């Protein structure tokens, strides 16, 4: 705990709350330099929908989910972590409503303002409505939490639809905020590093590559609208994400193997009489004929392992150390991933789509443009103006 007060002080400086907009900056896990903090270190909590809009959307979501049994079991749309949800595009009513209130413009606008990425460079990778229910409160096989993960998208948001009084627990939990003590000045931050919007209709915006999850709901139901927003590659420094993912992968595997090695060593170790500071493992590699030279195994019967190696393995397998390495890699990624504006490549605008009319042989007879009525009652396209036959 000795480090906590200093980090707390720094943290308070890094959090800003005005009435509506709360922003929290992840503390540095690497020495500070000019690249810290980047916009991606920041998590924003701000209003996205009015009270009326939130109520409407919540009603529509509940009705859709109940008609389609969307929240009765875990869905398989997300391969690595299963959520209890439905895709917004499956509900015409909700899609139309979101269009009507210019929802995409608002979210993309807020993301663009806070993360310095052009709206034109953003696309949805997914937009879905998820439900968390406290365990034991219903017969349905639903979820009460979502394990920590990283999203496929660079940017993500979670918009709270349920009034906070309708559930306990919940919130979006961030590994990097886990041991930041709670503080009156940052009302949206709760114990354990979870961010809880003050009201329904608020969204939590964050970099999807931060390790995060859905904090356990202990009472009631928490309904959220979640969006994964992808950012055009021209904004991103290539290799940075690849390298981070490689590091995280190694770190995770290391945890498993180091723990296993350590266990074997501790189960079987015998302090050598001749070398007080050495460990003489009793186990040996059985299939050492597979090694390039016979008896090459470093764990052969004659081998003395210096205690420092055991300490080193212990050190590497320690959960806190693994977490610290993971957060350092995360910090590096947040600093480096987004290219400064002047280094971003040209925007490649998507090609323009134009309707084409076909003659009776199915041969296109020229680009056209749709007018109001697209099809006659027989389903034959009408109203095409030939621009350039
Ligand atoms: O429930 C939340 O706040 C987080 C949801 C989330 O991270 C996800 O669905 O990917
Ligand atoms: Fe997520």
Explain what you see.
This protein is an alpha+beta fold and 389 residues long. It folds into 3 domains: 4-231, q2cbj1_9rhob like domain (Jelly Rolls), CATH 2.60.120.620; 240-343, no CATH class; 355-386, no CATH class. It is 28% helix and 23% strand. It has helices at 4-13, 51-68, 92-100, 103-115, 240-268, 307-317, 319-336, and strands at 15-17, 22-25, 42-47, 85-87, 122-133, 146-149, 155-160, 167-169, 172-174, 189-190, 194-195, 202-207, 212-214, 217-231, 278-279, 305-306, 355-358, 364-370, 384-386. The strands form 4 sheets. Strands 1, 2, 3, 4, 5, 7, 8, 12 and 14 form a 9-stranded antiparallel sheet that branches. A hairpin with a 5-residue loop joins strand 17 and strand 18 (364-370). Helix 5 packs across helix 6 (307-317) and helix 5 runs antiparallel to helix 7. The chain starts with a helix and ends with a strand. The protein binds 2-oxoglutaric acid and fe (ii) ion (FE2). Residues 149, 151, 156, 212 line the site of fe (ii) ion (FE2). The site of fe (ii) ion has 4 residues, from loops. It comes from Cyclotella atomus. Keywords: Dioxygenase, Iron, Metal-binding, Oxidoreductase. This is Fe2OG dioxygenase domain-containing protein. Its cofactor is L-ascorbate. InterPro entries: Oxoglu/Fe-dep_dioxygenase_dom, Pro_4_hyd_alph.
CATH architecture heading of the largest domain: Sandwich
Q: Can you count the helices? A: 7
**CATH topology descriptor of the largest domain:** Jelly Rolls
Low-confidence stretches: 271-275, 369-373, 384-389
In helices, the fraction of residues equals: 25-40%
Fraction of residues in β-strands: 15-25%
Task: Please give the radius of gyration in angstroms.
Answer: 27 Å
What is the residue-averaged pLDDT? 81
Major sheet description: 9 strands, antiparallel
The structure class reads alpha+beta
The CATH class of the largest domain: Mainly Beta
Write down the domain tally: 3
Shape: globular
Q: How far is it from the N-terminal to the C-terminal residue, by CA? A: 76 Å
The oligomeric status of these chains comes to single chain
GO molecular function: dioxygenase activity; metal ion binding
Protein name: Fe2OG dioxygenase domain-containing protein
Cofactor: L-ascorbate
Keywords: Dioxygenase, Iron, Metal-binding, Oxidoreductase
